Amino acid sequence: MMKTQPQSEAINVFLEEKRTFEPPASFRRSANIQDPDIYERAARDVESFWARFASELVWMKKWDRVLEWDPPDAKWFVNGKLNVSFNCVDRWAKSEFRNKAAIIWEGEPGEERTLTYEVLYREVNQFASALKKLGVAKGDRVAIYMPMIPETAIAMLACARIGAVHSVVFGGFSAESLADRINDAQAKVLITADGGYRRGSVVPLKRDADAALTKTPSIEHVVVVDRCHSNPPMKDGRDRWWHEVMGDAQKFCAPEPMDSEDLLYILYTSGTTGKPKGVIHTTGGYLTGVYATAKWVFDLKPSDVYWCSADIGWVTGHSYVVYGPLANAATVFMYEGAPNWPENDRFWKLIEKYRVTIFYTAPTAIRAFMKWGTEWPERCDLSSLRLLGTVGEPINPEAWMWYHKYIGREKCPVVDTWWQTETGMILITPLPGIVTTKPGSATKPFPGVEACIMNGQGEKVEVGGGYLAITKPWPAMLRGIYGDRKRYIQEYWSRWDKIYFPADGAKRDEEGYFWLLGRVDDVLNVAGHRIGTMEVESALVDHMSVAEAAVVGKPHEIKGEAIVCFVTLKEGIQRSADLAKQLKEHVANKIGKIVRPEEIIFSAELPKTRSGKIMRRLLKDIALGKVLGDTTTLADPDVVKRLKEQYENTEA
Ligand code: ATP
Ligand code: MG
Predict the structure, then answer these.
(1) Continuous H helices in 473-565
(2) Fewer Cβ in 10 A, N or C end of the chain?
(3) Distance between CA atoms of 120 and 128, rounded to whole angstroms?
(4) What are the residues facing 360 on neighbouring strands?
C-alpha cells in the first residue's frame, strides 16, 4: 500500500551538500558591497533601502511615495517621472564616460564593433526619431524579432525613449510563435533583420517574419536591418530598411518623461510549463531593481568587460544585457552566434580575446561544456575572469564545481541567481563579496527581498522543503499579464494571501540558505515522499559518466510513482545495461533507497525550450506513452519524437 504523505510536507529533502566557498579575500576587499549588516539594515526599512538606489538614477520629477501596495497591485515611486533611455545612455554620453565602450560586439563570422556611450546615444536618438516618423507614439507596442546585434539593444532603448512598449520575441521562435505574440500585444511596428548567423549559416528572420505578417493585421510598418545582405523581398509601403529610415531621421529626439508606472515592456515567458504569459514590466521600479542588482550581484566596475551570454529575447537579456548594466555605465560584451562555432571553444576564445572579467550564463550551457570536455577551456587564457554567474535552472552541484574549477580556475566567486521573467530582477543570489557559497544553492534573498518556504498548509517552514514564496513586494515585480487580469491573479496570487507564488519548490537549510528543487508541477511522489526533480538529477550528474539528466514520475502500483531517468552521457562514454545498473545504485547510495530509479533511458539529447530549459512535461508524456502535448516552445521538436520512438522500442 502506498503511504499517505504527511499533509504538511510539501517537498521532502534528500540531498545534502556540505562543500562551502568563501569569497576570496581580494574580491571581498574591493567588492561594491562589503558590509554583511546590509541584510539587516535593508530589512529594517525596505522602502528607504530601495529609495537609496532609486535616487542614484536621474528623475525628471521625484516620486511622492516609495510604495503603494494594494495586493496584488504594487506601485513603486509613485508619481515619479523618468526616462529609461536617458538613464542608460544620455547620462553617460554627457559624462566622463562619453568615450567608454557601452557595447563591444562580435558577430559569429568574426566582425567586431564597439559602440561608445556617445555612439550609442547618437544611434538611439536617431532610431527613436525614425520610429516617431513611422507613426509610433507613446503607449504603442513595437515587436522586435532580431539576432544578437547592437541594433537590438538600440531598438529597445529607442522604444523606451519615446515611451513605446517593446515586445522582444526571441529570434529562434517560429513564424507561428511570432504571429501569436504580435497579435496578443497588437503591435504596430515590427523591427527585424534579414537574418542572423548561427552555426555558420544564415537564420532567415525576414522570411519567418513575412510568414507571420500574413496573420498580423495590426502591423503597419516593418523595419529591417541588413545584417547578412541576403536580399530578402521587401514589401512596398510596409517594409523599410533600417539604414534608410536612419538616414532620413532627425539627430535628436527628446526623451519622453514617463510615469514611474508607465509600461516599459511586455515579455512572454519561456513556456517551459505551458502557454507563454505576456508579462508586463513598468518603468521606475524596474529600472531601480535591475540597476541595484546588476551593481551588487555582478559587482560592476568601470574597467570590467561584462558578458551575459543570454539572448536579448529572454528576460535575462532585457535586465542583464541591456537595462541593468547600461544603467551602471558598464561595458557590455555581446556575441551573435553559437558557443560551438566554429569549434567548442568559441566562448573561451572570446573571453581570452576581449579579456572578459564577468561571465554570466545558464546551467544548460555549462552542462554542454561539461559534455564537450575540459580540453576546450584548458587551451585558452581565462585569467581575466573575476566573477561567474548562472541563471535559468537549478544548477547541479557537480556542474557548479566544474564551472568553478575549469572556468573560474578556483579564483572566481560563482553567483547562482534565482529569478523569473515575472520577477524582472534577481531575487535570490549570493552577494559575491559577502556570502559564502554552497554548490547548488542560490543562497539568500537579495537585501530588501523577503522570501520563505511554505508547506502544503501555507505555514512557514524554517528548515526543510516546500514551496518558495516571496512575501514582500519588490520594485521590478511584474504588474500583470498583458490583457489577462484573471490569469495574473490565478497563477501568482491565489495560492496564499498577499504572497507571491513562483511555482518553484525549494528548501531552506539551517543557515537560512535557499536551494531550488525544481518546478512544483514536476515534483515526484514516491512512496509518500515528495521529491524535487533537482535532487535526483544532481545525484545522477554526480556520477562521472553523466553530463545531464532529467527525471519524471510514472504511476506505480505500490510506490505511487516510480522514477524514470533520462540521461545524457559525457562524450566518449558508452551506454550499457551495466552502466544503467550502476547509475541506479549510485542514486540509491547518494540519496536513499527510496529514490532508486526504476528506469534509466540513455538519450543523446533532452527536449529543451528555446531558452535551453529541460521540458520534463514532455518526458513525462513519453514515459506515460501519451500523445505528446504542446511542443511549440521546443527548440527541436524532433528530439522528443526520436526519444518517444526509442522509449517505445526498448519497452517492447
Ligand atoms: P513558463 O513560466 O512559461 O513555464 P519559464 O518558467 O521557463 O517558462 P522563465 O521566467 O524564463 O520562464 O524562467 C524562470 C524559471 O526558471 C524559474 O521559475 C525557475 O524554475 C527557473 N530558474 C531560473 N533561475 C534559477 C536558478 N538560479 N535556480 C533554479 N531555478 C531557476
Ligand atoms: Mg515560469
Answers:
(1) 485-492, 533-541
(2) C
(3) 12
(4) 308, 389
Q: Give the per-residue pLDDT at 647.
A: 85
348: its cell numbers:
573561451
| Site residues for ligand 1, CB cut-off 6 Å | 269-273, 276, 315, 391-394, 416-418, 420-421, 442, 502, 504, 516, 519, 611, 613
Helices 117-133 and 150-162 pack at an angle, to 10 degrees, of: 60
C-alpha 392 – ligand 1 centre gap (Å): 5
Third-level CATH fold of 25-506: Rossmann fold (3.40.50)
- Of the listed ranges 271-275, 291-295, 537-541, the least confidently predicted one is 271-275
Residue 648 C-alpha to ligand 2 middle, in angstroms?
Answer: 30
What would you report as the CA-atom Rg of the chain, rounded to the nearest whole angstrom?
24
Give the number of residues written for the chain: 652
Which residue in 280, 356, 368 sits closest to 325, CA to CA? 356
* pLDDT over 70 at 506, yes or no: yes
Q: What angle do CA 578, 559, 528 make, to 5 degrees?
A: 125
Q: Are 551 and 525 in contact (CB under 8 A)?
A: no
User: Where exactly are the structural domains of the chain?
Assistant: 25-506, 523-651
Which residues are CB-contacts of 15 (< 8 A; sequence separation ≥ 6)? 440, 534, 535, 538, 539, 590, 591
Identify the CATH assignment for 523-651 out of 3.20.20.70, 3.30.300.30, 3.40.710.10, 3.90.700.10: 3.30.300.30
Give pLDDT tens digits for 188-222. 999 999 999 999 999 999 999 999 999 999 999 99
When the pLDDT of each residue in the chain is averaged and rounded to a whole number, the result is: 95
Quote the ligand 1 centre to 419 CA distance (angstroms).
7
587 neighbors 571 (Cβ within 8 angstroms): no
pLDDT value, residue 566: 96
* CA separation, residue 413 to residues 23, 96, 298, 404 (Å): 6, 30, 10, 8
pLDDT for res 502: 98
